[in-house]
Amino acid sequence: MAQNTGTKFIYQLECRVITHLANQWSEGLQMVLNAHQKHPKGRKNIEVYSTYIGDGEVAYLRVPVQNLGELDEWVTNPQIVIESVGDDERGHEALRRWAESFTWSSRILKLSEDGH
Questions:
Q1: How many angstroms separate the CA atoms of 94 and 42, rounded?
Q2: d(CA 48, CA 3)
């Protein structure tokens, strides 16, 4: 049975890193995480998991949320990063470089007390 830590949902972003762009991926991820730590509307609790054993280079970004309305804040991710970089053009370029280093899919996970 899952232990309730106060988080009801997890927004999970699955990123399949393009192997030869792994450094570009890492730099972009650090930029995003740092921007969220510094910004007043940033998500301070983003968790990052990566493949330890298994198929390919896959990273999972998990954003705990209490309600689905909190996902509206995640949609502002590009603006948070751009403001952190301090320059609109440089911010867009940094996000573009990060985005070209992986393919992604996402899902919303719900805390389950009974496996359903």
A1: 18
A2: 20
